[in-house]
Amino acid sequence: MDLKLSPQEQAFAEEVRDFIAARLPRDIEDKVRLDRHLDRDDYMRWQQVLAERGWFTGAWPRSVGGHEWTAVQTYIFNTIAGEMNCPELQVFGPSMVGPVIYTYGTDEQKARHLPGIRDSSVWWCQGYSEPSAGSDLAALSTRADDAGDHYLVNGQKIWTSYAHWADWIFCLVRTSRDARPQTGISFLLIDMKTPGIEVQPIRMIDGTHSLNAVFFSDVKVPKANRIGEEGKGWTYAKFLLEHERVENANLRFITQELLKLRRIASSVRVGGRPLIEDPLFAAKVSAVEAQFKALEIGVLRVLSNIQAGVPAGAGASSFIKVRGTQIAQSVLELILEATGADAQPYQPELLFTDADVAPIGPDYAVTPASSHFWRRAMTIYGGSTEIQRNIMAKHVLGL
Predict the structure, then answer these.
(1) Of 28, 372, 90, which is closest to residue 206 (Cα–Cα)?
(2) What global pTM score does this model have?
(3) pLDDT tens across 200-213, in order?
């Protein structure tokens, strides 16, 4: 996106580029460029490098150890990170539970949890969805029974990203059934090492393991780990979901994939000419790039409002989530189309290991199919597109 940057913003952009060029580990950069599987250590190493600079939580207020990045600075960082093959940041800590803790948490909760998020020494996961409560979160049934100074938590969460790597989970639980569903929900912080927690893997179609089912059997959670008031968890959850859906705009990911699309389309030849010169294919690329420009403007507007203390609003955050995931899927479809038959072989030894194995076909053809199939879930997780459209119809159009 061609923004007219101020001298200060231009200096920040150059600082980001110089820092990434000097500090991004080459092995991690290679994995991201080739779209290979990253493990926990890859993510943590890069996030801890950023944390040394205070950039893992750059948008946080200075009062809690952040740099109070403006919307443009956040955009600049994400865009350059995508261009320079940085890993996706694991946002459950810095962009989700972190703002909930520093906005609604007690002083003790802030002192205990914010440092581990800032320096990326603690990995968080999100315990929202359940087998019968996905986009309709108010239908959740995992319960937390009052046991004096603690709760006993029983139930199941599902589709829990990276629960097998996580140190802590922030969880929506039902503490009351006496009122309407939303008012009986509380927000708990739970140590994943607590007895009674079992994590079971959910393997995806391409063989990756990022999702899990999490079972709670009489898990003892101190009441001191509850955010805010009992029964007010829905308020904190809505606050978090606005941040989550802005994150689901996927600016860094789409930037990275658009660059990959142009590289592949410039390498593939049709009729003796690069595919990118084919008028029909070039028109498809231009159309999705134009859609991405519009999305970037929308994200900047929402980020500016959030940083000015104006809630994003359900309609705005839902729009960002819908368009971000749809555009990402469109780009991946074009990458698969450009790769053609070379994308057909399934080569897990190149996806998941460092084996010195020659790929079948060009390097870029190893991952487009697996990435395409896995990312079909983007329009489901984080609130399905159908549910988001209903939210926009209600809150924006008043239907």
Answers:
(1) 372
(2) 0.86
(3) 999 888 788 999 99
